[in-house]
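Appendix C reproduces, verbatim, an entry submitted by the partner laboratory led by Prof. M.T., so that reviewers can inspect both the input and the predicted structure.
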Amino acid sequence: MADNLLEEVKIIDNKTPDTAQSVQTQTTTTTTTNKDDSSEPEIENNSEHENADQNAAVEVNNQEKPETRQCWVCLSTDEEDDETTDWVHPCRCIGSSMWVHQNCLQQWIDEKQKFNSTLSVACTQCNTEYVLIYTKHNGKLFFAIDLCDRILYSASPLAAITCIVGSIYWSAVCYGAFTVMQVLGKENGKSLIEHSDPIMLLVGLPTIPVVLILSKLIRWEDQILKLWFKNNFRYPLLGYVMGKPAAKSREFTENNLLSRETMADPITICRNFCSALILPTAATFFGGLFFGDIESNLHRTLLGGLTFIIGKGLLKISLRQWQYVRISHRKILNFVDAKT
């Protein structure tokens, strides 16, 4: 028994260093693992500090670096200009439309004002009115001259319109008085004007040329041509005098037979204006030519005017119908080469 106990004690003593060594190894491993785990937050904290430092450096650089300005008129930047170039931001605009050269904006304002310093100018984008400061006049004389110039500049359009309207009005009055004496006779017309109320003359005489011009809007010749067209050109007398047109479509007939004159045409306006104003003279002439035996100047002029209007209308109808017949028989020939 004593020998067995001694052998077991020796075995235990031989195993003790290995066991202690393994325990020490486990302890070292655990300590290393704990150190590695504690180092990960430290690395993350270091990376966060580095990013914050970089952002702070970028902000400092942006603050130290000035904003690049660009003129929205000439599109040049302050890097291309001299240091003495005068810049201004006259409105609420931001970004590329914020800055502009003082000289460029001055030229732009001159174009908008058209050298009229009384006009206000505003930004075309934000509609902010520019604040413009002018130097004060050194004396009262120049201030008075400048004030008079502004008043004359503002009143010139009204004065011009007044002169034009007044000239037209008094021309109409004179024309009306001349027409009255021409139609009634010199003595009768003069007597009528002298014994009439001045207010009635100032109102009535200018209406004479107006009525004559408005009468040209009545185109009775077109009504006769439409009546002839609706009856399929069955009037034998007109067909014998003016010829029979070829069979054409209704659209073709309306486009070529009826009048295409419009009041939008300047030539038509001038033609109707002159024709209206010449009517009293023509009526007097034809009245004396065909109705000279009538003693009353008024009756003679009325008959002469009626004769002139009817004769002119019939000639116009005949001319238009002849033109229509001529166009309706128009033909287009084949091309023949002269060399062959």
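Strands lie at 87-88, 100-101. Additional entries are available on request from the coordinating office.
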